[in-house]
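User: Second chain of the day. Same drill as before.
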Amino acid sequence: MNWSPGLPLLLIATALATAAAHAQTPVTLPPGPGLKLVETHCTSCHGLDFITKQPRGKGTAFWAGSVAKMIDTHGAEIPPDDAKAIVAYLGRTFG
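Assistant: Same format as last time:
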């Protein structure tokens, strides 16, 4: 490959254009009971896009397992009643 003086600039410009193309718009979740708890507890460790990228249609049991994993494995401090409301919201919304 021939390296020309302009090649590094082209590579930088390409990288910046690629990054801009992949920039994410802010994620919002549909309203409903439990949304505020999701926004409060879940976003203390990750973005809402983490939730929207999960497989759809797996039901409430999937979300119960996911929330339990966040608590048991990752140390999320979510009170039991809040966890139940979060699971119910996620199951209804993304079930």
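The first helix runs from residue 7 to 21.

User: Great, on to the next one.
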